[in-house]
Amino acid sequence: ARPIVVELFTSQGCSSCPPADALLGKLSQRQDVVALTFPITYWDMLGWKDTLATDANTRRQKGYAQAMNHGGVYTPQMIIDGVNDVVGGREKAVLAAIQARRDFILNLQKQQLRQSLANRQIPLDVPVVLTATPREVHIVVGQAHDSANHDATIWMMRVLSQGTVKIGGGENQGRTITYRNVVRDLKAVGMWKGQAVTLSLPRGDTQVPHDGIAIVVQQGGFGRIIGASMISHSNYYAAQ
To answer: Most-buried pick from 58, 60, 106, 127 (CB within 10 A)?
Structure first.
């Protein structure tokens, strides 16, 4: 089964975020999870400008809020596989949501084996193969095996595996926090409409410090995630 994608929206200026940051660090060690940190900008007004935050991360969280019909955004928020949101510091709730998605995917695979997707429309997952060479990143998204109309966004995220910050102001003044799998750059690089897609993209923007790549295939743009893959920093370095 593909990995479950967990997205943490956090801020260095948020006093309730450090437990969620620590939990994301634990999840980043799991092989069955793609755990990503998205530092946001709107708490910069509290007296400390987040050194890792980007406007793109903030826009992504607001996109989720609109798609989920939420009245606003908050931190720490974890989005599980694009469909559920959980307060990021509530470990039991986060783990339960991850397990629920894992059970859903395994049950889905059993249904796909038993039934013809052409006769019954079952939401599907697609395989994503991600490789890197010294110059390029290669992405292959598999083909759908049903006749439904699909419309999914292929997101590419350049990821910094670890960033340690000594916070000099705001609600967390004086604390030193280590963040894991920080999304430093986020772009839609293609669309998936059911056909197989192959993309070859430049390996990286030297202006964006990163040592890993994550690919997420997501219905609409902020809907259910149907495919994901990540090259961690060790394998990314090995391809240089």
So the answer is: 60
